[in-house]
Write a structure and sequence with these properties.
Length: 180
């Protein structure tokens, strides 16, 4: 529940109340330590999710039924500071929105590296894209997402030729081509 309110019914009926509830919308699945959690669009934890979901052969279909939330690994260990966890979740949520806005791509999986860089997998693509460590500068993430769009436009006829894209270099990208 994101928000709830209780008011008395109109006309002052005794023992009558109106209850309004705004639900959280699932935004991503995140591993915190070894535990998998559903996280709302406001960064709040909605509840644990069975990790067996990820082992299933029909994993992608099951995730799609949950709204297709991206899977995030490498946030923190379970014993980490709640403030640090909240900060990193906020960063990931903002970065995912920007990547989607700028590239039109849906991120299916994120791995936060210890260095702060993000390894991103995009739905329907086989390659990994690395975004830089700009946790305080969303403009840099925006620029990197725009560079990714430009790269994909150049490979629109053969996207399978890309093995990986590293955008973590200042105003540059390293594209590794798949073995043909």
């Amino acid at each position: 529940v994101r928000e709830a309110s209780v008011t008395r019914c109109p006309d002052n009926f005794w023992n009558c109340f109106e209850i309004a509830v705004v639900e959280r919308q699932p935004s991503l699945l995140a591993f915190v330590g070894d535990r998998l959690w559903m996280v709302g669009d406001d960064g709040g934890f909605m509840g644990p999710v069975s990790s067996k979901l990820l082992e299933a052969q029909d994993r992608d279909e099951k995730l799609q039924k949950l709204g297709g939330p991206p899977l995030v690994r490498g946030l923190l260990t379970e014993g980490a500071s709640p403030d640090l966890l909240k900060s990193r979740l906020s960063y990931v949520l903002k970065a995912l929105r920007i990547i989607n806005e700028e590239s039109g791509l849906f991120v299916s999986e994120v791995n936060l590296r210890p260095s702060g860089e993000m390894e991103v997998r995009v739905a329907g693509r086989t390659f990994v894209t690395v975004f830089g460590t700009s946790q305080n500068d969303m403009a840099e993430i925006r620029e990197e997402a725009q560079r990714l769009s430009e790269i994909l436009a150049k490979f629109k006829d053969n996207p399978a030729a890309i093995e990986s894209v590293d955008l973590a270099f200042n105003k540059r990208a390293v594209v590794k081509l798949a073995q043909q």
